[in-house]
C-alpha cells in the first residue's frame, strides 16, 4: 500500500482487524503526559484510532487535545465514548492535509502504518505542524516484520540517521515501559523542533 487509503483503514476498523489497538492509552505516553504541568498546551495525536491517549489526556486536565484519523469509524466511536470532548478537536482528515500549530505531537502506531516511502514526508509535515521548540514524542517499532506491512518496522540506527536531519534528538532509547507484547521491540523518542 503505497498511499493513504481511507477505505482500507475503515475496513480494518469495521471488521475488527485492529491488532495495533491495545485497548487503553500507551504506558510510555501516559507516563510522559503525567509529567507535563501546563495542561493548556496544544497537542495533536495523528492516526489516533480509538483515541485512548486523547481520552486519558482530557481526563488528566489537558484542554487543547486534537485527534486526527483518516478513517471516520474510530473517530465516531471516540466521540460517542467521550461526549465532553470538543467536536472541533476531532479531525477526520489526511494527516498531510492538516493545518495547525502544536506544542506537542504524540506518536503511537501512526509512523508504522505509513509506507516507508512516506517517511520523509511524515517528518517534513511534523516539522511544519510543530511550533519552534515544540516536541514530537512517542514510541516507534525497533524491529523488522517478516511480512508486507502495515505495520512497517524500522531500527534505531535508521531512525537516528533520518530524524536527526529534521529534529534535535533529545531521547532515543529502548522503551522500558512498553506493553508486555511489545517489550524489547519499541524505542521511545523525544524530538525537538529546534533545527532550521
From TrEMBL:
Q: Reply yes or no: does the keyword S-adenosyl-L-methionine apply.
A: yes
* Signal sequence region: none
Keywords, comma-separated and alphabetical? Methyltransferase, Phosphoprotein, S-adenosyl-L-methionine, Transferase
Q: Name one GO molecular function term.
A: S-adenosylmethionine-dependent methyltransferase activity
Q: Which InterPro entries does its entry note?
A: SAM-dependent_MTases_sf, TPMT
Pfam families in the cross-refs = TPMT
Question: What processes does the entry annotate via GO biological process terms?
Answer: methylation
On whether Nucleotide-binding is a keyword of this UniProt record, the answer is: no
Tell me the CDD domains matching this sequence. AdoMet_MTases
Q: What is this protein called?
A: Thiopurine S-methyltransferase (TPMT)
Amino acid at each position: 500500500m503505497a498511499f493513504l487509503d481511507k477505505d482500507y483503514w475503515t475496513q480494518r476498523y469495521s471488521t475488527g482487524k485492529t491488532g495495533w489497538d491495545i485497548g487503553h492509552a500507551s504506558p510510555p505516553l501516559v507516563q510522559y503526559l503525567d509529567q507535563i504541568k501546563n495542561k493548556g498546551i496544544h497537542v495533536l495525536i495523528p492516526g489516533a484510532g480509538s483515541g485512548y491517549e486523547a481520552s486519558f489526556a482530557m481526563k488528566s486536565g489537558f484542554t487543547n487535545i486534537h485527534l486526527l484519523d483518516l478513517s471516520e469509524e474510530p473517530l465516531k466511536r471516540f466521540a460517542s465514548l467521550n461526549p465532553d470532548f470538543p467536536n472541533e478537536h476531532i479531525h477526520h482528515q489526511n494527516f498531510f492535509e492538516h493545518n495547525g500549530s502544536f506544542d506537542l505531537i504524540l506518536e503511537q502506531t501512526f509512523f508504522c502504518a505509513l509506507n516507508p516511502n512516506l517517511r520523509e514526508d511524515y517528518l517534513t509535515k511534523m516539522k511544519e505542524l510543530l511550533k519552534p521548540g515544540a516536541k514530537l514524542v512517542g514510541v516507534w517499532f525497533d524491529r523488522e516484520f517478516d511480512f508486507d506491512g502495515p505495520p512497517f518496522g524500522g531500527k534505531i540506527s535508521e531512525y537516528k540517521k533520518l530524524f536527526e536531519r529534521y529534529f534535535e534528538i533529545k531521547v532515543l532509547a529502548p522503551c522500558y515501559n512498553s506493553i508486555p507484547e511489545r517489550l524489547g521491540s519499541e524505542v521511545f523518542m523525544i524530538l525537538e523542533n529546534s533545527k532550521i
